[in-house]
Structures are given as structure tokens and as C-alpha cells.
Amino acid sequence: MAAHQDEPDAQAACRRGDARQASAGHTQKKARASRIDLFFLDECGFSPTQPTGYSWSPHGQRRLVAYEAPKGRRVNAIAAYRPSGDAPTLRFQVYPRTLTSGDVVAFLATLPSGERPCVVVLDNAGIHISKQVRRALPSLHRLGLSLFYLPAYAPELNDVEAVFGVIKGYELPERSYVTLQGLLVAVRHAFLRYRRRLNRKR
């Protein structure tokens, strides 16, 4: 009997999933046709010492990367990546502190172009679904911006995650930074280099 009682809920969940998938596909088609601006948004943190990757050193010598304690010296970035439309675009802001919902709202307000509707895809992180964000929705809607929340635990559906991977893995050649200011400058330059490469693809 319990299985029969659960069945309508399961069917309803499937229908919601199908509708969400159809809506996402329709949104992406409009983005490719430049009828909307479709951004993928998320945040990323950077420690003074980045994870080590591949490197070179003289034969018989080990390459050492100095370790810097991250306490109070992390840099956080919020970024929005638009892969479709007339040209790929990357918008970002970098902060030497923890990000807040106010930072998210301020950043979202910079994304609409005013020329076409703007849809922002993001996950259900606390600073994305906070009361402050919900209170800002009417003013964001008036700017032409709508939010599209991803299912839980689905980072692979957010295209900006691949951008973060390239920036962390390739655009920060120095793997350790002695000062917070040095890390802040390096992260900004890494995002700028990635954006310049996007611009060259136009």
C-alpha cells in the first residue's frame, strides 16, 4: 500500500523534472539565437597556496612549492559566464573577503544589457536564495533579469565551473602567494587573461 501512496509523488517529481529539462532546453535555444542573454553564475575561492599540478625541474631535483596559511588570506570571486549568443562573455568581481548576499544582488544588477531579457543560471547556495536576494527579485525583474535555479548537487550543469577549473589550473602559474594583495592581483589577472582569450574568439 505504501508503494501506491508514494507513486503519485514520484510521478509528480518526474513531471517537474521533465518540465524543468524542457524549459532549460528552450532557454538555451533562445540564447544561441541571441534572443536572450544566458549567464551561468557561481562563486569560487582561492587560497594563498594553490593545489600543485604538473611542473618541471632540473633532473634529480624536486620542485618545492612554499605553503602559505590561508587563515584570513583567502580571495573570493563571483563570476557569470555567457557561452552562447553573439560572443562568449565573462563578467567577474574579486574580493579579499567572504562574499555576501549583498554582493550577489549588486553583481546580478550589472548583468542585464537592456537590449534583451537576461536569464541567470545558479545553484541553491545560501547566498543565492537568501531573504535579501528574494527581496531584490522585483527590482531585478524590472531590469529584465530572471533567475533559473539548478537542481541540488548538480555542479556539472553550471558552465562556469569549467571556467573556474581553467583559471585555477592554468591561469595562475605561481602556486603560492606571500601576501593577500599579491593573491588578489594574481586572481584578477587570471580572470582578465581568460576573458581576453574569449574576446579573441569573436
- Mass-distribution shape: globular
Strand residue content: 15-25%
CATH uppermost class: Alpha Beta
What is the CATH topology?
Nucleotidyltransferase, domain 5
Structural class: alpha/beta
Q: Could you describe the largest sheet, including whether it forms a barrel? A: 5 strands, mixed
**Gap between N and C termini:** 60 Å
DSSP summary: helix tally: 5
CATH-defined superfamily: Ribonuclease H-like superfamily/Ribonuclease H
Number of strands: 5
Strand order in space, largest sheet: 3-2-1-4-5
Structural commentary:
It is a single chain. The protein has 202 residues and is α/β, with parallel strands linked by helices. It has one domain (31-49, 70-200): Nucleotidyltransferase, domain 5 (2-Layer Sandwich), CATH 3.30.420.10. Strand 4 (118-122), helix 3 and strand 5 form a beta-alpha-beta unit. The chain has 5 helices and 5 strands. The protein has a 5-stranded mixed sheet with strand order 3-2-1-4-5, with helices on both faces.
